[in-house]
Write a structure and sequence with these properties.
The chain is built from 11 helices and 11 strands. It is an alpha/beta fold. The strands form 2 sheets. Strands 3-2-1-11-8-7-6-5-4 form a 9-stranded parallel beta sheet, with helices on one face. α1 packs across α2. InterPro entries: Luciferase-like_dom, Luciferase-like_sf, SsuD_RutA_monooxygenase. It comes from Pseudonocardia ammonioxydans. Keywords: Flavoprotein, FMN, Monooxygenase, Oxidoreductase.
Length: about 270
């Protein structure tokens, strides 16, 4: 099933409230549907920040990108997610994952257990089940799950409405094909998303620091999916190709690339 395109901006929540709401407003002005906010102890608490953004910008969808499951109990996650979904009139999506490696220290700082990979996946399933219980007969809160390995993809395929492929920044088409094949093998067809790490002809130094020392050469290869370049027409054609090949229709981009991708967003959103 070919889904319509949608686009989100990943923006870390920091600074005073008026600056944060101005940034959220700019997301919609550029044509993006969703504000996505990381979960770490170096920024404002994501659910609080998203509540402020959703209140200030009535047409904006909001989603943590993504909550690290081990930082909260499953019941706390479900309680807060359901509350935000109701209070925003259904504009909140629960983004959740097992946590990036450095989230282990953050869990310890919060007094929360990290557990094994299996424990963390079980915690996510428990949070989603608790959320569905709280949703009851009302509208179901959309769940966005980030996953990469076969086990996480199997859980995401079974439980999530949207699955973001948590691929390495240097991943190529073969890895995307493997991950989407794992999703389809579950028999469901969730919306599939992918993060665009770099948009344009220049790779910023901070992107290279994040991706690793060997990423520069790999990101110059034509089949590296983390990077999108060319004219707006060429970029739009590449995203259409990714939807045709892999079923990827939801693309997230870092805030510093939002202006560059905006002409593509204007061409493709809802198509």
């Amino acid at each position: 099933m070919s889904r319509p395109f949608r686009f989100g901006v990943v923006a870390a929540a920091h600074g005073p409230g008026d600056a944060w709401t101005a940034r959220a407003r700019r997301v919609t002005e550029l044509g993006y549907s969703t504000l996505l906010t990381p979960d770490n102890l170096h920024t404002h608490a994501p659910l609080h920040a998203l509540a402020v953004a959703a209140t200030a910008v009535p047409d904006l969808r909001v989603c943590p990108f993504v909550l690290a499951g081990p930082l909260r109990s499953p019941q706390t996650t479900a309680w807060e997610a359901h509350s935000l979904a109701v209070l925003t009139g259904g504009r909140f999506e629960l983004g959740i994952g097992t946590g990036r490696p450095d989230a282990r220290a953050e869990a310890a700082a919060l007094g929360m257990p990290w557990g094994t990979a299996a424990d963390r996946l079980a915690g996510i399933r428990a949070a989603i089940a608790a959320l569905r219980e709280r949703d009851g007969d009302g509208p179901a809160t959309p769940v966005v799950m980030a996953a990469s390995g076969p086990r996480a993809l199997a859980v995401a395929a079974a439980d999530a409405d949207t699955v973001f492929l948590a691929a390495r920044p240097t991943a190529g088409r073969s890895e995307a094909a493997r991950m989407t094949a794992d999703l389809r093998s579950a028999g469901r067809e969730p919306e599939v998303g992918m993060n665009l790490f770099v948009v344009g002809d220049e790779i910023p130094p901070d992107a290279l620091r994040w991706a690793g020392p060997d990423a520069a050469a790999t990101m110059d290869e034509p089949d590296t999916l983390a990077r999108l370049r060319g004219t707006p027409a060429q970029m739009a054609a590449e995203l259409c190709r990714r939807r045709d090949e892999f079923g990827i229709s939801y693309f997230a981009v870092a805030e510093n690339f939002a202006e560059t991708l905006a002409p593509v967003v204007e061409r493709l959103s809802g198509q």
